Amino acid sequence: MNPELIEQLVKQLGLDLGANGLPYRFPLHPNLVHFTLGIFIISLIFDFAGALFPLDQPVLKIFQIPVRRANFFDVAWYNAIAGCIITFFTVTAGIFEILLAQPPVDMKSDWGLEAGTTMLLHGVGGILLFTMMVGMTIWRGWQRFRLRKNHPRQVQWGYLAAALFLMGYMFVHGTLGAQLGAEFGVHNTAAKLIRMGENPNHILGAR
């Protein structure tokens, strides 16, 4: 974002930005995103485990794990709900932190993208990801409570195929986010101080 616009926004909101360019010590978005990815991926994995339950049973018997097929689908459903809830806050924090970001203009990522392009793709992609997650959860609920309510396999194969696509999308999207922090140093305190010619050990160690 334009430095002048950031300055105006900071003054209007009465924010006090730290060395990482944020009004708080640690970025919220990178921390929340681990819950988003972890919880929703767990949901998808348990749906796969439930769908492939006939293949799981011999392994479960070896380890004497008492479990019913429905248990896998229960875990998947409640994690999908939790994933959507936490992702709302993840995306909100991400948009706020993008507004305060000042990406470098003379660098490119390992993928050959400039910082501004990477940030734009990650921001728009995050909103799209949240939309897809909500859509998947609605589809999941429709199968659970209506379409396949009395079916032993609670999810359709088409849903599982969409889940594979979504996990691939998460990988690409997550890599863009990692590049913003690790390669471009967006809201990365140490990276930003180094670019400014400062010693992070001296600046941060003095606090």
Q: What does this protein structure show overall?
A:
The chain is mainly α and 207 residues long. It has one domain (3-205). It has eight helices and no strands. The chain has helices at 3-13, 29-51, 53-62, 69-99, 115-147, 157-182, 189-195, 200-205. It is elongated. The model has no long low-confidence stretch (mean pLDDT 86).
Topology:
Blueprint: H1 3-13, H2 29-51, H3 53-62, H4 69-99, H5 115-147, H6 157-182, H7 189-195, H8 200-205
Helix pairs in contact: 2-4, 2-6, 4-5, 5-6
- Strand residue content: under 5%
Structural class: mainly alpha
Tell me the span between the first and last alpha carbons. Answer: 28 Å
Number of helices: 8
Biggest pleated sheet: none
How many strands appear in the DSSP assignment?
0
Average pLDDT, to the nearest integer? 86
Overall number of domains: 1
Helix content: over 70%
> What does the radius of gyration come to?
21 Å
The helix/strand order is HHHHHHHH
The low-confidence parts are none
Give the overall shape, derived from the CA principal axes. elongated
Question: What can be said about this structure in brief?
Answer:
With 207 residues, this protein is mainly alpha-helical. Helices cover 71% and strands 0% of the residues.
Essential attributes:
elongated, 207 residues, mainly alpha
